[in-house]
Amino acid sequence: MVEKSTSSRVEKLYAVKGMNDILPSDSSHWEWFEEQVRSQMVRHAYRNIRTPIVEPTALFVRGTGETTDIVEKEMYAFEDKLNGEALTLRPENTPGVVRAAIEHNLTYDGGKRLYYMGPMFRHERPQRGRYRQFYQLGAEALGFAGPEIDAELMLLAHQLLSSLGVHGVRVELNSLGVASERHAHRAALIAYFQKHADMLDADAKRRLHANPLRILDSKNPAMQSMVDQAPQLLDFLGDPSMKHFDTVKTLLSACGVQWSVNPRLVRGLDYYSHTVFEFITDELGAQGTLCGGGRYDGLFELLGGKPTPAVGWGMGIERVLELLKVQGCSNVIASPDAYAIVAECGGFSVAMQCLRVLRAEGVSVQMHGSTLEGMGSIKSQFKRADASGARFALIFGPDEIAQGVVTIKSLRDGSGAQLTQALNQPSLWARSLQSPA
Ligand code: ATP
Ligand code: MG
């Protein structure tokens, strides 16, 4: 029995702002999403990688980039009190994956296709679709240089979203070329922005020399028309870069993916080159980017590895699930096959032995449990059985147990049909409780 507390209540504690509990009513959607992901990843031959949530701060300063929003203002960076190490809760997982690939020489025998799912942390202003702890699904292809892998990754994201039943998602893409092309464009960009210095906001002024490309990313309406007229990186691309980009577009079209080029799509991270892309919906307001990614051929070297081409994307899981909700896609919320009603405490020994076998046979069973008020009447147990969504009630009453049987009552088909089965041979009738596949 649980002792009832007599002392006055202690103060409640709450979750950190912007960090959410995912409760069972929602987590069934998450589990379903994760199953779809695994199934698509297997079909595309991408394998799972799990890296630590805490990494050295230097990984993101170098990898994500010093002048990015993430590193400038969104990182949960702290000093380990015990040894003074500078650590950070990962704001994204691409640098972690690349660090692990370098550390374990993962690409020594050829390219690797990887995916991950897990929490990321960014100190942002919490709002719909923007949280301080959020979950990303990511896919990374390491060691492949060709445009066909850029297309493969985009097709993977596209196929995953289709398999989930999401619709109306736009694909935008752009090419950032190679470093020398970006340099030439950068000079032209700085000259252009200097000519319009009076129109630049404080953020843009700060970025003018540090990272002028990012000014193209600005959402400030007052700067839109000026930014729209800025020199386009696409005009600075040489033939090999253009060919890479054209092949990606051709492959996407051949596979039925509609796309559009957005010359202002530069992505917020420093490590991108060649193809960059986003999957966007108009149904989630300002937080409409579901998935973003691109090629990052320079990142391995930036993190101390050998030159290794790579490409990948990250997808915000909350945003995808929110879109599914908005679009009314319902997926199956798992109910147990059966609910075990146990009339008296003395029945648990027999009931639990039987449930053990049923579960081993693959049946999902929820067992009635006593509360502070005790076992509850059979009637109240039936109410619980109903609420559980189970299709059958298994009744372990004193009469049943005396006769060595269990009564099975149908709860969902309106028939109320009842039959008895042998208690000592559950494997003979386990199948009859399972839903047809
Ligand atoms: P945004 O422009 O919305 O801030 P981002 O460019 O910072 O996105 P990425 O770093 O590319 O985002 O992350 C990939 C995906 O992760 C985003 O497209 C989005 O779906 C999701 N995401 C990013 N930040 C958050 C957040 N704070 N909360 C929830 N999801 C997020
Ligand atoms: Mg962001």
Quick recap of the structure?
With 437 residues, the chain is of the alpha+beta class.
Features:
437 residues; alpha+beta; BirA Bifunctional Protein, domain 2; 2 domains; 8-stranded mixed sheet; 16 strands; 20% strand; elongated; binds adenosine-5'-triphosphate; binds magnesium ion
Overall description:
- The chain is an alpha+beta fold.
- The protein folds into 2 domains: 14-177 and 237-326, 2-Layer Sandwich (BirA Bifunctional Protein, domain 2); 338-433, Anticodon-binding domain (Rossmann fold), CATH 3.40.50.800.
- Helices cover 36% and strands 20% of the residues.
- The strands form 3 sheets. The chain has an 8-stranded mixed sheet with strand order 1-5-6-11-10-9-7-8, sandwiched between helices. It has a 5-stranded mixed sheet with strand order 13-12-14-15-16, sandwiched between helices.
- Helix 1 (24-43) packs antiparallel against helix 5 (147-164).
